[in-house]
Amino acid sequence: MKPARPQRPNRASRRPRLAPEQAGLPARRAALRLLDAVLRRGLALEAALDQAAAGLDKREDRALAHAIAAEALRRLADLDAAIDSATRQRLPDDAKARFVLRIALVQALAMNIAPHAAIATALPLVDGGPRRLVHGVFGTLMRGEARLPEAPQLPPAVADRWRGQWGDHVVDAAQRAISAPPPIDLTLARAEETEDWEKRLHGESLLPGHVRLPAGTPVPATEGFAEGAWWVQDIAASLPARLGGGGSGHALDLCAAPGGKTLQLAASGWDVTAVDISESRLARLRENLERTGLGAQIVAADLLEWEPDAAADLVLLDAPCSATGIFRRHPDVLHRVRPAIIAEAAQLQAKLFDRAARWVRPGGLLVYATCSMEREEGEDQLAGFLDRHGDFAVDPVLPDELPDGVYAAPGGWLRTLPDMLADEGGLDGFFMVRLMRTA
Ligand SMILES: C[S@@+](CC[C@H](N)C(=O)[O-])C[C@H]1O[C@@H](n2cnc3c(N)ncnc32)[C@H](O)[C@@H]1O
């Protein structure tokens, strides 16, 4: 009998085995690239993700990179305070060592990752930089049993800006709002099925046509998603289209993509024309219409140039904005939105608001909304608009249009802030107003 040939290892087992910390390294490197894209280049976290995660083979690595970067952004002020407490000379804000320490510390202090794994996957990121310093600062903080506060601090510039506009209680509420992931709100295609879906999904409804699910619910796997019975939409984001009422006429949905409000308008009976400048976002709007079986005419155009053929019964302008109102899900806005960005957005909003006004028929409605916490993009826009357009009047938002605990301002517009619905899981910061064309 011939002696058995030693077996050739198959391809997979010939690959060198990676030590666990090396296996986790690509995701951490991507997290570092993401943090750099937001903090140094001012990009939105989601916009930077594809490039930062290019080369990651596994979906879990991409999700981990995103989770580390998002958590670091949520807790940046506290991570930096911890780092500063353990260094004799303050590390510059853009020092590589500070970036790497943020990545290591957020994992160990906020993400339940074992400190040895957090530092082992962080040190190679320092490349030629001060490894010993990073190791030393991390070790000092771990030995000192460093902790992060339960409610993260807002970056000082944001805290000052919001305190000046809304007061201390809103800053405190905003800090509490980012201490835990927000719940997931659904808008139902058929409001009359609210009780049914509330039971089937074990959710909680705060308004007809709305169901709230716990944070982290896996959306595509949840009953009703594939057949388009509902879509994900923060309850505050669902209010502007509700202000249009159930309709039987023609509605223009301006700045429509990815289409949460288009779906609502179509579902409540409007014949909708949805306009947006972004082809890629409109592709998502098309997918959403397909999934829900709802219909709308879609126009890809710059609203600073486009004109409709005829005036509409309802015009909804969900204007592009700083998006500071969605800081719970997009903590990057806390760091990259500066006063100049807000001022630039406000200029565009005023132009779009004026154009939208021309396309409302006499007696028709105009709803203006922004997902911003800034008066410049809300209350100030309305004041400027009313000065320029004597033929429009505020049509006040009524209590029965809103969930309990959310109130319109005395002037009839609605400003949602993080102290509203705080015990039920909160809501995004929005400004919205309904105007009627009187002449
Ligand atoms: C707040 S988002 C809209 C969200 C959308 N209404 C929804 O409910 O899903 C703002 C939108 O304005 C669009 N936009 C920005 N500038 C525009 C312009 N000049 N003309 C048309 N759309 C524009 C952006 O592409 C973006 O999709």
From TrEMBL:
The active site is at C371 (nucleophile). The keyword Transmembrane helix does not apply. InterPro entries: MeTrfase_RsmB-F_NOP2_cat, MeTrfase_RsmB-F_NOP2_dom, NusB-like_sf, NusB_RsmB_TIM44, RCMT, SAM-dependent_MTases_sf. The keyword S-adenosyl-L-methionine applies. S-adenosyl-L-methionine binds at C255, A256, A257, P258, G259, G260, K261, D276, D302, D318. Keywords: Methyltransferase, RNA-binding, S-adenosyl-L-methionine, Transferase. It comes from the Bacteria. Belongs to the class I-like SAM-binding methyltransferase superfamily. RsmB/NOP family. This is RsmB/NOP family class I SAM-dependent RNA methyltransferase.
